[in-house]
Every structure is written in structure tokens, then in C-alpha cells.
Amino acid sequence: MTSVQTPGLSRFNTLPASEAQATLHEVCASSAWGSKLNAQRPYATAEELFLASDSALAELTAGDLSEAMAGHPPIGRPKPGDPTSEREQRSMAGASEELKAEMLELNLAYQDKFGHVFLICATGATGEYMRDAVKTRIGNSPEQEREIVRTELGKINRIRLTRLVESEEEN
Q: Which DSSP string corresponds to 115-134?
């Protein structure tokens, strides 16, 4: 990212705090993450915002991670009417009925084991890739899985923050 401030970043930097907090909540449902990023505004560059996001993500507690995951629908079942959810899970929309059924079954087994949705950065991933990932990750310990979730959440947050700062439109 260049050191030039984009219109989207400038707009985000000048939002009233409550609107900025709501905007950040759309990126990540963790209130702790959003509060940390909101408190550090304004950001000189998108890279500065991304680094603040990474730092805030690294500090999230298990409870904060749970709050963040609660904002994500299961793979294969995007939130109706939510363009972000639909865009991110686009590859599952064209998946076979067999793959969709298998993902539903795997999602439920994963949720039973870990107590939260299977979280993966779905942008650009095929349905088969996500199926294979959940099959592998279901064998992890809760501690291993929490750190994988933190990494995947970081990828998702970066993609969403990039869309925010590169936006030419009013939010």
C-alpha cells in the first residue's frame, strides 16, 4: 500500500467514534478489537491500520475470539441479505448438493467439538479446499485450533479492511 491516504481511509478516519465503531464491527465482531482500532485513529496509511489490526488481534482473549467468531455464519450458509457474507462464501454457492451436505455435517461436528463455527478465510477458496481443511482441523486440540482461528480471522480482517480503505463510496 502506498503512503497516500485513500478516500476510504480518509473517510474512516473522520467518522464520529460511534460510526467508526459500527463500521469496525462490520469488519470484525470483537468489540475489543474494534475499540483498539477506533482509539488509534487517525491512521496515516492503510498499512498502519493493518498493523494496528494485527496487533489488536494478537491481544484478543479466548472470549474476544469467541465474540469475533459469533459474527461469522457457517461455511455454506451465508447470512441472508449480507453481501459480505455472500461474497466471501461465493465458492460454496456453486458447490454440488453432495458437497454442501458434507460441509453441513462437518460444520456440525466441528461445532460440537470446539463450541464455535468453523472459521476459515473463504475468499478465493474452493468448496473442496474448505471441506478438506475442516476434515484436517477437526483433529486439532482446542489450543491449536484457537491459534489457527486467530490466523484465519486476521486474513479475513485484512480483506475486509482493504475493501474499507479502498472504497470510493460513502459507507
A: SS------TT--HHHHHHHH
